Recover the amino acids of this structure.
């Protein structure tokens, strides 16, 4: 190899390529943890959505995660089979079903998040803490703009 490096410089000039490839590296690190717990990434994402927002209708979980509603049903079925989520009637509107974490699911999600954060710390170790915070801020800004356009709802950052 010469001084040009491993990857084509033209690709390195595309932020979408960089973001996508760095995302792939992070997902590879995280997938080991998820595989150890027999989880797919969308199942993990659903657990986190329910942890962060509490019980909600299935369609809202799908909307918040930008997942196909019919695919989400399968993910929730698997999580329900593992005892991590439960479906129940909405007391305010008996026609509607909600999905929420079980007590077992709450504990599991907290433990899993500790492991997930560790994978992120390891793969981003080449960056300082300040650089990691800047990267997270910039990526979040792009994602929020996309979500605002996708949903038509104004951005509501988490506290």
């Amino acid at each position: 190899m010469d001084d040009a490096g491993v990857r084509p410089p033209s690709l390195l000039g595309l932020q979408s390529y960089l973001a996508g490839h760095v995302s792939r590296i992070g997902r590879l690190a995280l997938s080991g943890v998820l595989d150890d717990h027999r989880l797919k990434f969308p199942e993990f994402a659903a657990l986190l959505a329910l942890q962060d927002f509490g019980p909600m209708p299935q369609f809202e979980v799908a909307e918040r995660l930008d997942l196909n509603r019919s695919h989400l049903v399968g993910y929730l079925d698997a999580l329900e089979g593992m005892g991590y989520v439960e479906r129940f009637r909405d007391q305010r509107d008996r026609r509607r079903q909600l999905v929420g974490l079980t007590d077992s699911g709450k504990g599991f999600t907290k433990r899993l998040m500790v492991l997930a954060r560790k994978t992120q710390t390891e793969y981003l170790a080449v960056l300082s803490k300040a650089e990691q915070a800047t990267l997270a801020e910039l990526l979040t800004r792009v994602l929020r703009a996309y979500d605002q356009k996708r949903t038509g709802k104004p951005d509501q950052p988490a506290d």
